[in-house]
């Protein structure tokens, strides 16, 4: 276990004109750590995810990332080419809407293989073999490898998105509400799959969710956001079982027990 | 020798923001030690804060004041000041916590649930599974259930899985919150024997046992939690269980 953090955010702030996206967000993420960011719509949690993954530029503050070489750099200092390379190799992004995270005009196997080609794999047989291996790991039958994602159910598309992201062995995966919009039984299967993969691969994950049960099942730490600000952060079971902040208490007490 | 666990002037209040900031005092001035090889039992009527003390010790609840020192090898860690990473690390190596309830993880088999806990820092996969099988047989969980996830098990079966998991792991501090609550006499006796074995191995145990037979069998001493009541004198009449 390295004591140096993999990703560290300091005083991140994003303004959309006069409107606040988020402000004063600081945290450290270590290898193998799963951080849940919870809050309602408009809380700033998706803005935060975009800032961390360099899709948006912060108005103020910084994000530092420790590369595989051990070098830590400010993400704002990366060139466009370096940034894109990072997004294809070290990072993954699982989106709420699989249609945004997948290439819908490319087969399931192609979706997975494409990430491999982006990091320089050229041997067709190997790419196909690895793609099939990853489809199997996310519980998609080999027979579906040449099918288009459009013919897949919602749960399968999310699993395909996960395979596409994990095939390059990323170090951090950003997840934006990966289970919302799915049937409860499909959600449970997907969550369980994510839980297993994250622990087997020692992935660091930042998962944005409005669902406290998702945070409890997957994450080590939870950050609660409201109105663009972090109102409480800590060990997930502590935040959920003994919330200190008024808003967190409201969130926790608003959930119907299963 | 330093104790495995020491609580110093620990207090716990809940502030209920949704109830006009009502302050609910649970305990205050909680001070005691637990040494290696002893089983200290928290006594007193229900609702007096016994579980809260265990939850603060494992970092599940915030302590409102005081220090909770847990020995981790040569160092002492104050749980009340530890970072989430430090607490997770303590739970993975030092502190075991067995509650009445099993938090079921969908689709993971019973054997895997227990083996996951038994997998030590250097122990191999097969050793962990062997330990898991041993614990499940000791607790008389029918072998035909081992490959099923515990989600659909009865309360008593789930609790045995929970105990098997809690006791399969090698920890120097064990926190037991009514581990025998819904067990039959035979399995209660097994748990008593397992606790005695842990004591002989030098494990420090802090527990809550409502069952008097179990408590009398395992307790090295009993601490009456009503003496930590927030308003002195308020619960003096309830000093019956000690």
Give a structural overview.
The complex is a heterodimer of chains A (258) and B (242). Chain A is built from 10 helices and 10 strands. Chain A has a 6-stranded mixed β-sheet, with helices on both faces. Chain A is globular and about 55 Å long. Chain A folds into 2 domains: 1-80 and 171-258, P-loop containing nucleotide triphosphate hydrolases (Rossmann fold, 3-Layer(aba) Sandwich), CATH 3.40.50; 102-170. The mean pLDDT of chain A is 93. Chain A is α/β, with parallel strands linked by helices and 258 residues long. In chain A, 43% of the residues are buried. Chain B folds into 2 domains: 1-14 and 27-94 and 171-242, P-loop containing nucleotide triphosphate hydrolases (Rossmann fold), CATH 3.40.50.300; 104-170. Chain B has helices at residues 50-57, 84-93, 110-118, 125-138, 155-168, 185-200, 212-218, and strands at 5-16, 22-34, 39-43, 65-72, 75-78, 95-98, 173-177, 204-208, 221-224. In chain B, the strands form 2 sheets. A 5-stranded parallel β-sheet of chain B has the order 6-7-8-3-9, with helices on both faces. Chain B has a 4-stranded antiparallel β-sheet with strand order 2-1-4-5, covered by helices on one side. In chain B, a hairpin with a 5-residue loop joins strand 1 (5-16) and strand 2. In chain B, helix 3 (110-118) crosses helix 4 (125-138) and helix 3 packs parallel to helix 5 (155-168). Chain B is globular, with a radius of gyration of 18 Å. Chains A and B meet through helix 7, helix 9 and helix 10 of A and strand 1 and helix 2 of B.
């Amino acid at each position: 276990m390295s004591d140096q953090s993999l990703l560290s955010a300091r005083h991140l702030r994003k303004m959309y004109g006069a409107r606040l996206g988020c402000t004063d967000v600081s945290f450290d993420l270590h290898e193998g750590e799963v951080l849940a960011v919870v809050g309602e719509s408009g809380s700033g949690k998706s803005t935060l995810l975009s800032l961390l993954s360099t899709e948006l530029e912060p108005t103020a503050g910084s994000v530092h990332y420790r590369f595989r070489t051990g070098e830590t750099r400010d993400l704002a200092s990366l060139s466009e080419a370096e940034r894109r390379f990072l997004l294809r190799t070290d990072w993954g992004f699982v989106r709420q809407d699989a249609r945004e995270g997948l290439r819908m005009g490319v087969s399931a196997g192609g979706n997975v293989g494409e990430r491999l080609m982006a990091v320089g794999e050229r041997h067709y047989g190997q790419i196909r073999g690895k793609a099939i291996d990853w489809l199997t790991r996310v519980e998609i039958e080999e027979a579906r490898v040449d099918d288009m994602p459009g013919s897949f159910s919602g749960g399968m598309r999310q699993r395909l998105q996960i395979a596409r992201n994990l095939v390059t062995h990323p170090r951090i995966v950003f997840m934006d509400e990966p289970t919302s919009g799915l049937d409860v039984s499909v959600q449970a299967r997907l969550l369980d799959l994510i839980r297993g993969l994250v622990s087997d691969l020692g992935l660091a994950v930042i998962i944005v969710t409005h669902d406290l049960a998702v945070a409890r099942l997957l994450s080590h730490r939870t950050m609660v956001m409201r109105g663009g600000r972090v109102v409480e952060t800590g060990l997930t079971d502590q935040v959920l079982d003994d919330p200190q902040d008024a808003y967190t208490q409201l969130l926790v007490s608003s959930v119907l027990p299963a | 020798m330093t104790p495995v666990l020491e609580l110093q002037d620990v207090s716990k209040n809940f502030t209920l923001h949704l109830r006009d900031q009502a302050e609910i005092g649970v305990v205050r001035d909680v001070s005691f030690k637990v040494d290696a090889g002893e089983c200290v039992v928290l006594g007193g009527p229900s609702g007096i804060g016994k579980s809260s003390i265990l939850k603060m010790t494992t970092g599940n609840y915030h302590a409102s004041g005081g220090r909770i020192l847990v020995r981790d090898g040569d160092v002492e860690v104050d749980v009340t000041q530890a970072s989430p990473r430090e607490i997770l690390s303590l739970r993975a190596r030092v502190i075991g916590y067995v509650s009445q309830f099993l938090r079921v993880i969908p689709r993971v088999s019973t054997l895997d649930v227990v083996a996951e806990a038994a997998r030590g820092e250097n122990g191999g996969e097969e050793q962990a599974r062997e330990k898991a099988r041993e614990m499940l047989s000791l607790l008389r969980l029918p072998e035909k259930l081992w490959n099923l996830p515990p989600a659909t098990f009865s309360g008593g079966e789930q609790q045995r899985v929970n105990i098997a998991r809690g006791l399969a792991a090698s920890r120097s501090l064990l926190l037991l919150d009514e581990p025998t609550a819904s067990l039959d006499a035979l399995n209660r006796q097994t748990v008593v024997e397992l606790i005695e074995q842990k004591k002989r191995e030098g494990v420090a145990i802090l527990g809550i046992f409502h069952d008097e037979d179990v408590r009398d069998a395992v307790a090295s001493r009993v601490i009456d939690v009503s003496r930590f009541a927030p308003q002195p004198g308020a619960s003096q009449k309830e000093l019956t269980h000690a």
